Amino acid sequence: MTKRRKEVEEKLSTMRRDGRESVLVVADFDMTLTSFLMPDGSRGMSTHGMLERSGYFGEAFTTRAKDIFNRFYPIEVDPNLDWDSKFAAMSEWWETTHKLIVEQEVTKKDIAACVKAGHFRFREGVPELLAQLKEREVPILVFSAGIADVLEEIFKQRLGLEGLPIISNKMKFDEEGKLVGFENNTIHIMNKGAVALEGQNLELVKDKSNVILLGDSLGDLRMADGLPNKQQVLKIGFLNDKIEERKEEYLEKFDVVIVNDGPMTAVNELLAPIFA
């Protein structure tokens, strides 16, 4: 659904005119490339959830992680909370969770086991989208407030993909292969616009003027802030939860909104003329 059909059509027309060589896809991961709900109606795991809900690190860890989630998730989806208060809460949520995960001395072998047992699925149409982007040589930058090491393992195990450009929270391991912390500053759902692109990621995006942004939170709208040569951004949002309370705000902020944990196939159809 959209409140600005004419603007969407104009953006798509510009992308078709400029050609797919001008296009970059920037996508959130959790609950954007993946589904919010599983077929049985239960909530799918996020990348943090792969570790927190797996049971792999014992009951005490699982219980503590659940308590932290139950404290902060209502704040994340509260449409009435001001930006500064929500930003502070999300910062605290991520820092608290990462400290708890580090205490478990996680290894890469642990990550692989948690992903293998993970209760999650890619959103319908996502494998096809990724295949189409690869075939048409349109780059995708995965910009996640999750955990980069878990993301890499997910793409490897579930889709056989390695080397996708990912900006996320990267784990740091000691000589024995145990987690001792996270590299650089924490990325959470509210501060993606402050993350500086560098190295290969900057090289990937530097000549791209047309951006297709895929996200499920209002914080994801800032994922394109650091792109140096963007001229327009087509913003596509997935509204998975608290739909009636947040629908109007999403329709105001995103160009197109997919509700009720809808499939990526609708997005694929929308973008097909650009990639033809």
UniProtKB/TrEMBL annotation:
Q: Which GO terms describe its biological process?
A: nucleotide metabolic process
Q: What is its EC number?
A: 3.1.3.5
GO-annotated cellular components: cytoplasm
Is Zinc-finger among the key words of this record? Answer: no
Query: Which species?
Result: Guillardia theta (strain CCMP2712) (Cryptophyte)
Family, per entry = Belongs to the pyrimidine 5'-nucleotidase family.
Indicate what this protein is called per its UniProt record. 5'-nucleotidase
Q: Which UniProt keywords apply?
A: Hydrolase, Magnesium, Metal-binding, Nucleotide metabolism, Nucleotide-binding
Quote the catalytic activity from the record: a ribonucleoside 5'-phosphate + H2O = a ribonucleoside + phosphate
Q: Name one Pfam family in it.
A: UMPH-1
